[in-house]
Automatic annotation (TrEMBL):
Name of the molecule in the record: RNA polymerase, sigma-24 subunit, ECF subfamily
Keyword Transcription regulation: yes
Domain RNA polymerase sigma-70 region positions: 61-123
Gene Ontology annotations of biological process type: DNA-templated transcription initiation
PANTHER family in alphabetical order: ECF RNA POLYMERASE SIGMA-E FACTOR, RNA POLYMERASE ECF-TYPE SIGMA FACTO
Domain of life: Bacteria
Signal peptide from the UniProt entry: none
Entry keyword set: Sigma factor, Transcription, Transcription regulation
């Protein structure tokens, strides 16, 4: 048995403990802070009060138009965008009680919209025609959808009108007569014919097709068409 060392003054001397493996203490990561209430826009007071319906309506009114524009840009079809927007609205309504405010509500709304679009791209017929349980929220979604899509169509039409204004007068006349007024090719040829001359209808059709291609190319360059 090993004797315990005794100092000259009678006190017991303890040696250093032998080195050995020690557990590594790692700092505990603090939980992510909640997003500031100012990050939630008009929905902030409703989220704070736990008013999910009020929060959903605020999100739709504040961010609905830009979300619908986003969906239209990635789906490239207004009808599909409107359908997916309906699905997004349902996901928003069902998801708000579990929204933990760890990111701004706008970011969370875009996440919902993207996932709704991704599901649609995988299966376009899944969930088609579903309606919200809340009449008021459904009404707001319809209002946002109609207003935003109408605004997009009007803006696109204004852009097309600007492009058409850059065409030559005879090109504009051909578009107006055939597209806007619905004249037959024989009638268009009669209008465009010089005095005493006839216009070849097949040649007129080819010219019209080239003109449409030219206008479409101009529209794509301006970002009016995908």
């Amino acid at each position: 048995m090993r004797a315990t060392p005794i100092a000259a003054n009678g006190t017991v001397r303890y040696g250093r403990p032998s080195p050995g493996p020690f557990p590594v203490v790692r700092p505990v990561r603090a939980p992510e802070p909640l997003a500031r209430m100012t990050d939630h826009g008009r929905a902030a007071p409703f989220l704070e009060a736990g008013d999910h319906r009020g929060a959903a309506e605020a999100v739709l009114r504040e961010y609905g138009p830009q979300l619908l524009g986003y969906l239209s840009s990635i789906l490239r079809n207004d009808a599909d965008a409107a359908e997916v927007f309906s699905q997004f609205t349902e996901d928003l309504w069902r998801g708000l009680p579990g929204f933990r405010r760890e990111c701004p509500v706008r970011v969370w709304a875009y996440r919902l919209a993207w996932h709704a679009a991704a599901r649609h791209l995988r299966d376009p017929y899944r969930g088609r025609g579903r309606r919200l349980e809340t009449h008021e929220l459904s009404r707001i979604a319809d209002e946002v959808r109609s207003s935003a899509l109408l605004g997009r169509r009007e803006a696109r039409q204004r852009g097309i009108d600007r492009l058409r204004a850059r065409l030559q007068p005879d090109e504009q006349t051909l578009l107006v007569l055939r597209l806007d007024r619905g004249l037959s090719w024989r009638e268009v040829a009669t209008v465009l014919a010089d005095e005493g001359d006839a216009v070849d209808e097949p040649a007129l059709r080819k010219r019209f097709e080239r003109l449409k291609e030219k206008l479409a190319r101009m529209a794509r360059e301006e970002g009016l068409l995908e």
